[in-house]
Amino acid sequence: MAFSKENYKGTLMGVLFVAIFAAAATFISSLQPIITLGLSPLVIGIVIGIFYANTLHNKTPAPWQKGITFSAKKILRFAIVFYGFRITFQQIAEVGVDGFLVSLVMLTSTLIFGSWLGFKVFGMEKDTSILTASGASVCGAAAVLATEPVLKAEEYKTAIAVSMVVLFGTISMFLYPILYETLIKDASGFLYMDPRTFGIYVGGTIHEVAQVVAVPASVPNASEEMANAAVIVKMTRVIMIAPMLILLGFYLAWTAKKDGNSRSEKTKLVIPWFAVYFILVAGFNSLQLVPQDIVNIINEIDTFLLTMAMTALGMGTVFSKFKGLGLAPVYTASGMFIWLVLGGFVVTKLICM
Fold it and tell me: Is the pLDDT of residue 253 over 90?
């Protein structure tokens, strides 16, 4: 336990360590040249975290690592819950059926395509293929961790899947703002997306929740409509993990029975409750019971917590971890990445037309 009697001092020091980096990222993001570039503290945070992870990571006291992990997992979920203060049910209704359909189509297609690609095309072990596909199709590392007990997979398989999520999710976080500014915003015809549609595209195709939050924040002069659409659609994908895991459990039971495997025994369903709490907070915010000044303060604190989470995520991105994994996971994740970026664009355009 992170805050057990034996670990709480190290955990607190690790959290404080991340907070100092996040404060630096917040300060850097307030500098005029950075404002001109449109880089948010979330993006600055993960860049600083990645730089630290691949230079001075070995200098970090081992007990502090629990605090860094706590920031990347627990603080992230806490921050996403309170992101609900930026959303109302009225706005959710505005996103409408098209946002739900984009989420459903992209989750289902990516999970099936990624699992097939890894297992059948690149010869990857089935559990690793499903774990990697679940991370890309639902909500990144959280989906991988939620799927692991259903599969009863070994830890190294989970590590491979999470590594692919971090790598390609981070690439997406930097790529999408560039695509919007250079190809989408001022385009004509099929390439053009309005801010709301681009938000749906972002929410329907990027891996991690925090990365989805970071993309609109990195687009210069991005509207709240874009940011809210992205998060709402992403949270729709996150909530869909519950039926996905149930169906996966049925599939595993069926294949185990068919193959005479003992894995058909009942498995525990893991639900990402932070997604449920996010909806509850958004529902409370819809009642407009809290004064707007207080809501603004909550949102500022929440932005800092998200910056901490992104910084901690960057601190876990050690490039040496990708060595020795073979190329099958990279090929599989690359295939899904291409589908999410290109296929997701087409799907979003067709549904939102």
Answer: no
The span from the CA of 46 to the CA of 155, in Å, is: 25
Q: Say which amino acid occupies 48.
A: I
Please tell me the distance from the alpha carbon of residue 316 to that of residue 170, in angstroms, as a whole number. 12
- Main-chain phi, psi angles of 346, to 5 degrees: -65, -45
Q: Of 175, 155, 152, 173, whose CA–CA distance to 163 is shortest?
A: 155
User: Cα dihedral sign for 131, 132, 133, 138?
Assistant: positive
Q: How far apart are CA 94 and CA 20, in angstroms?
A: 38
- Biggest CA-to-CA distance, the chain: 64
Domain extents for the chain? 8-352
One-letter amino acid for residue 63 of the chain: P
CA dist., res. 220 & res. 181, Å (int): 9
Q: What is the pLDDT of residues 256-297, one digit of tens each?
A: 776 665 444 444 555 667 777 888 898 899 999 999 999 999
Give the helix/strand (H/E) hosting 82.
helix 76-82
Confidence (pTM):
0.71
DSSP string, 18-57: HHHHHHHHHHHHTSHHHHHHT--HHHHHHHHHHHHHTTTG
* 8 Å CB contact between 87 and 217: no
Q: How many residues does the chain have?
A: 353
pLDDT digits (tens, 9 = 90+) for 170-215: 899 889 999 999 999 988 889 999 999 999 999 999 988 778 888 8
Q: What is the DSSP string of 118-182?
A: IIIIS---HHHHHHHHHIIIIITHHHHHHHHHHHT--HHHHHHHHHHHHHHHHHHHHHHHHHIII
Q: 324 vs 58, 132, 156, 328, CA distance in Å? A: 20, 17, 12, 11
- In this structure, are residues 136 and 168 in contact, taking their beta carbons and an 8 Å threshold? yes
Cα angle value 22/40/17 (rounded, 5°): 5
Phi then psi dihedrals of residue 185, to 5 deg: -60, -45
